[in-house]
Amino acid sequence: MEIDCEPEDSLISSFDEDCVQLGGVKDMRLEAEAVVSDVLFAVTEMYVSQSLDCALDVAYINVEIREGTRFCLELTEAGLRVVGYAFDQVDESLSTQYHETVYSLLDTLSPGYRAAFGNALLQRLERLKQNGQ
C-alpha cells in the first residue's frame, strides 16, 4: 500500500481542500488548476490542457518533468494517471496506475521532482528555525 506524504499546509496546500463542489461532483478543471499550482515549483512546465476536452468528471494536465520527459495526465475522482507520453496526447491503450495525489505520481516519475520537493521542505524548515531563534 502506498502512503502519500504532503508538506505542511503553508508550503503546499492539498488540492482536495481547494476544490469546488457542484451538486456533489467536483469540477475537475478547477481541481486540475489547483494541482498545477501546488507543484509547479518542482517541474519544468505544467498546465491544464486547453486542447483536450475537460468536464466535471475529467481534466487533463500536461507536465514536463525536470528530466525533460513530457506526459499527459488524466485527473478523475479515481486520482491521477499517465495517459500519454506527449502534451495533449491520450493513448487509450495505456493502462497506467492511478495515484491518489500528484505528489505520489510525480515522485514515481521524477527524481528531479523528489529533490526539488525535498529542497523546498528543507528551506522552509531553515526559515522556521531562523525565525524561532
Automatic annotation (TrEMBL):
GO terms for biological process: regulation of canonical Wnt signaling pathway. One of its GO terms (cellular component) is cytoplasm. Coiled coil: none annotated. It comes from the Eukaryota. Residues 28-128 form the GSKIP domain. Gene3D superfamilies: Hypothetical protein (hspc210) (3.30.2280.10). It holds the Pfam family GSKIP_dom. InterPro entries: GSKIP (IPR037395), GSKIP_dom (IPR007967), GSKIP_dom_sf (IPR023231). One of its GO terms (molecular function) is kinase regulator activity. Belongs to the GSKIP family. This is UPF0279 protein C14orf129 homolog. It comes from Osmerus mordax.
